[in-house]
Design brief:
It is built from 14 helices and twelve strands. It is an alpha+beta fold. It has three domains: 173 residues, 2-Layer Sandwich (Beta-Lactamase); 79 residues, Signal transduction histidine kinase, dimerisation/phosphotransfer (DHp) domain (Helix Hairpins, Orthogonal Bundle), CATH 1.10.287; 177 residues, Histidine kinase-like ATPase, C-terminal domain (Heat Shock Protein 90). Helix 11 runs antiparallel to helix 13. The longest helix is centred in the middle third of the chain and has 36 residues. The termini are far apart.
Length: 434
């Protein structure tokens, strides 16, 4: 089936240019993707040269709001692995391939592009391209999620046969999400900086003990046993630190992708408590699970939810006194559509001035006590990032002398109904009180 129309020719030629840009690395894509883009664009360009062009043919009609006409050209665009948009001279989204619709959830074909995008840099680039600016590539961030970085390449093409719209052009946009690439780069930088800072003290300690054992304490059996025990503890601290840093980096790498699997939060809470029972027995602390054995259901990553609950339980065992409890949080009007799970200890509590900074990396209320307990200063930071990936929240309530309560808020599976129930709960309680 031959391609028809000048629009198909322009798209093929523009794709060839974009493919060459991709091959040159303008989109920051991997080498294999750059090559694929170049070959794909070149093939479409070669095919476009074979499109018959009728002499004296009437100007093509304006594009339909529904997008491009069916045919081989559209089928090729549908299979393009890069997100692609075609904006008509009026600013309407004429076409979006499946990759673009997956990347931009708010996107609607037939609507003005300003309804689908809240990114000033991108909107300015579209306006410039329509006015005749040369093609260019740039990065922009999505409105409401500045952690997602998109590389865009925009290129305008004059609309033939439309003298009534001088200077107004179709604009072709090709995208590549750079979020994961930038996170990997930041992870490498952060890992080196954090590891070098936090490992300096235990490494210096181990080195000092080795020099002592090689010198003054060479023949002192009692000192040797004591120093070897300290060295083993410092090595264990370094191992925990590296493990936590790697875990945090893995969570951050996929933080922009929300989990989709259904999980039973009550079942996960009981499983985590059972797994930590030997640790609790060793510390002489009781774990009380007051949450139901089943439900509520949430969308989540099972392993990460176990890790989040486990980190909170370990914190309660290290710094609290008496039993550590897991219990369901009552519905909250400030967290509509969410369910809460609280881990509560009965320790000395946390001074109010420390609460806002508890989830910062390596922040410790008491550095000496944290290190004596084997803490790395990363446990709550890991919990915060797990909640961020789950589109949830970690809240902390504490008063000196009354312990601390850490609550995991997670979107309920079937969040709309749960949200109505949460909003109705305070009203029902007020009515009952009246």
């Amino acid at each position: 089936m031959p391609l028809r129309g000048e629009t198909a020719r322009r798209i093929a030629v523009a794709l060839a240019a974009l493919g060459a840009a991709g091959a040159a690395g303008g989109l920051g894509a991997p080498l294999w993707a750059q090559g694929a883009a170049g070959l794909f664009g070149a093939a479409l360009f070669a095919f476009a040269l074979r499109i018959p062009q009728e002499r004296g043919a009437a100007a093509p009609p304006p594009p339909r709001p529904g997008g491009l006409e069916p045919g081989l050209g559209r089928a090729a665009l549908e299979r393009l692995p890069f997100p692609l948009l075609l904006i008509d001279p009026a600013g309407l989204i004429e076409y979006a391939n499946p990759a673009a619709r997956a990347l931009f959830e708010r996107l609607r074909v037939g609507e003005h592009h300003s309804m689908s995008f809240r990114a000033p840099d991108f909107l300015d680039a579209l306006a410039e391209a329509q006015a005749g600016a040369p093609p260019r590539s740039f990065d922009f961030t999505l409105h409401g999620d500045r952690n997602r970085v998109i590389r865009a390449h925009v290129d305008g093409a004059e609309q033939p046969g439309r003298p009534d719209r001088p200077g107004r052009r179709h604009v072709l946009c090709l995208f590549h999400e750079r979020t994961q690439d930038l996170r990997l780069e930041r992870m490498r930088t952060d890992f080196i900086a954090n590891a070098s800072h936090e490992l300096r003290t235990p490494l210096a300690s181990i080195r000092g003990f080795i020099e002592t054992l090689q010198g003054p304490a060479r023949d002192d059996a009692e000192a040797r046993e004591r120093f070897l025990g300290i060295m083993q503890a410092q090595a264990g601290r370094m191992q925990r630190l590296v493990d936590d840093l790697l875990s945090l980096n893995r969570i951050e790498l996929n933080e922009h992708v929300a989990p989709t699997e259904r999980q039973d939060l009550g079942e996960i809470a009981h499983e985590t408590a059972e797994a930590l029972a030997p640790v609790a027995d060793e510390r002489g602390v009781e774990i009380r699970v007051l949450a139901p054995a089943s439900g509520p259901m949430v969308r989540g990553d099972r392993d990460q939810l176990i890790q989040a609950i486990g980190n909170l339980l370990e914190n309660g065992m290290k710094y609290g006194e008496g039993p550590v409890e897991i219990l369901p949080a009552p519905a909250s009007a400030s967290h509509p559509g969410m369910v809460g799970l609280t881990v509560r200890d009965h320790g000395e509590g946390i001074p109010r001035e420390h609460l806002p900074r508890l989830t910062e990396r390596f922040y410790r209320v008491s550095v000496r006590r944290s290190r004596n307990q084997g803490g790395t200063g990363l446990g709550l930071a890991i919990v915060k990032h797990i909640m961020s990936r789950h589109r949830g929240e970690l809240t902390v309530e504490s008063e000196p002398g009354e312990g601390a309560s850490f609550t995991l808020w997670l979107p309920a599976d079937g969040g709309e109904a749960a949200g109505r129930a949460a909003r109705a709960a305070p009203r029902a309680a007020q009515a009952s009180a009246d």
